[in-house]
Amino acid sequence: MPYLALLFLIAFLSSCGSVKHEEMLMLQEVKNEINPIENQSVLKIRTDDILSIQVASRNPATVVAFQQKKENTAASGENALGLQDGYRIDEEGNIYLPFLGQVQAAGKTLLTLREEITERLMEFIPDVSVQVRFLNFRVTLLGEVFRPNTYIIPNERLTILEAIGMAGDFTPYASRKSVLVIRERNEVRELARINTQDKSLFTSPYFYLSPNDIVYVEPLKAKQYATQGDFFQRYSYLIIPIITSFIVVLGQNLK
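Predicted structure:
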């Protein structure tokens, strides 16, 4: 009987930290279906955003004045300050362009701003072509992902699933039912939890991420027991003989 107790104890400690199969699944009970995309948000320009504004023409000499200054931004994957070409939106929501001077940018979409700049520049450069994009669209992923880091996004559309994929996917101990999104905008901090195992995540206003979002993936409770199991495995050569001796002595005293 004491030996059975010993075997049970060893089996229990060795199994600590095991994760159930269903806890590792995403989008459970999803069937073949086609649904319209209803909540794809359109990002609007905000104060302190940094924009790339590329102006082109058949005559390069006419666009020399649009060579952009350098702005400090965090380099992707390095957490260091780097330099990128761009126009920073000032505290009043404006940028300043050659020929045009002050241009109101905050509150507009990239498309709206591009069309406005193009229309105004055609007075000076008839064949002008303008492209506008974000340079400071970055998101931070923390917690139970394989590569937690801050990532620079080359375009203005990123889903939470794509972000998790960039970070190397969930670790085995990630809680897929509780992914926290922290979003700050207009002097308001929003906190929302997303269940990536439920298809309702597609209709969540946080499915599409915004610039400077922070995504935190919580650990499962099994990770706590896994740490305890690692301790047992590391020192099992000491623990098992002690437990064995104790049970042997206990067995002899019970005779």
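Summary: The first strand starts at residue 50 and ends at 56.
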